[in-house]
């Protein structure tokens, strides 16, 4: 099945945008790409990258039973940072979803909405916990254009039921009606790379340190998600210092220095 999927991607590399990033899938794809000779697809790591990845001490946990949540609550830069620093959230990515037009991009979203996809450990944070942040961290009564609308895309009947129940509970806190939509999850297209971990990518020196430490893909990296959250003004210095991300000392020192200052961010 994996090889068949890889060959399908080979015929249409753009379909890589649609692949969900469960840890086992990525591990299998990377391992297969190293041995099956499909370099032309761009999946084979260079010798230098393989050495760096092998030597990397960066902590990239693979959690059995991890689940996916997909939400839209305005500009996805801030949403990804918010959840990146949330305990229990393993990985994040931003993109476009909810529509029917294939292969949207930032300059042509068509009928899609900016969305954030979260991989999380339900043993640490529940789906209800994910939605608790959702209802509290934006105004669900404010109506926006399709690009920035408030929406929850559910991946199961259980998620749908929880979304509907928590919406009713949240409505009690607002005088105006909540306009948040609840809809089934659709194909999720990755946004352009410069949108991914936007807060983290603004720190070029740190990005260089992380690359040298073996970070190959910021989209699928747990460490990148966490740092993006901290650098986006979420979490705390104490939380960062108590967390073992496997960072080299110079990366730790860089982040501590930034967090000791007042972090002020905006969406644009």
Automatic annotation (TrEMBL):
<keyword id="KW-0560">Oxidoreductase</keyword>
<feature type="domain" description="Peptide methionine sulphoxide reductase MsrA">
    <location>
        <begin position="69"/>
        <end position="204"/>
    </location>
</feature>
<comment type="similarity">
    <text>Belongs to the MsrA Met sulfoxide reductase family.</text>
</comment>
<dbReference type="InterPro" id="IPR036509">
    <property type="entry name" value="Met_Sox_Rdtase_MsrA_sf"/>
</dbReference>
<dbReference type="InterPro" id="IPR049006">
    <property type="entry name" value="MsrA_helical"/>
</dbReference>
<dbReference type="Pfam" id="PF01625">
    <property type="entry name" value="PMSR"/>
</dbReference>
<dbReference type="GO" id="GO:0008113">
    <property type="term" value="F:peptide-methionine (S)-S-oxide reductase activity"/>
</dbReference>
<dbReference type="Pfam" id="PF20939">
    <property type="entry name" value="MsrA_helical"/>
</dbReference>
<dbReference type="InterPro" id="IPR002569">
    <property type="entry name" value="Met_Sox_Rdtase_MsrA_dom"/>
</dbReference>
<feature type="domain" description="Selenoprotein methionine sulfoxide reductase A helical">
    <location>
        <begin position="220"/>
        <end position="247"/>
    </location>
</feature>
<protein>
    <recommendedName>
        <fullName>peptide-methionine (S)-S-oxide reductase</fullName>
        <ecNumber>1.8.4.11</ecNumber>
    </recommendedName>
</protein>
């Amino acid at each position: 099945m994996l090889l068949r999927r890889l060959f399908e991607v080979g015929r249409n590399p753009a379909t890589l945008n649609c692949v969900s990033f469960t840890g086992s899938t990525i591990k299998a794809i990377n391992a297969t790409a190293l041995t099956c000779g499909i370099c032309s697809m761009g999946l084979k790591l260079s010798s230098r990258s393989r050495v760096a990845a092998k030597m990397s001490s960066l902590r990239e946990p693979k959690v059995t039973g991890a689940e996916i949540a997909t939400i839209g609550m305005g500009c996805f830069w801030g949403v990804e940072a918010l959840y990146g620093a949330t305990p229990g959230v393993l990985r994040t990515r931003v993109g476009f979803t909810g529509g029917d037009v294939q292969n949207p991009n930032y300059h042509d979203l068509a009928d899609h909405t900016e969305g954030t996809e979260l991989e999380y450990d339900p043993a640490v944070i529940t789906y209800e916990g994910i939605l608790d942040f959702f209802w509290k961290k934006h105004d669900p009564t404010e109506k926006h254009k399709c690009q920035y609308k408030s929406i929850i895309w559910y991946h199961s009947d259980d998620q749908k039921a929880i979304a509907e129940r928590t919406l009713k509970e949240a409505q009690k806190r607002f005088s105006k009606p909540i306009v948040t939509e609840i809809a089934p999850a659709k194909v999720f297209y990755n946004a352009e790379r410069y949108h991914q971990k936007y807060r983290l990518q603004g720190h070029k020196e740190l990005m260089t340190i992380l690359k040298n430490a073996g970070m190959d893909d910021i989209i699928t990296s747990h460490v990148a998600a966490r740092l993006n959250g901290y650098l986006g003004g979420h979490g705390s210095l104490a939380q960062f210092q108590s967390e073992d991300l496997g960072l080299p000392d110079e990366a730790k020192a860089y982040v501590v220095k930034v967090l000791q200052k007042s972090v002020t961010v905006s969406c644009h």
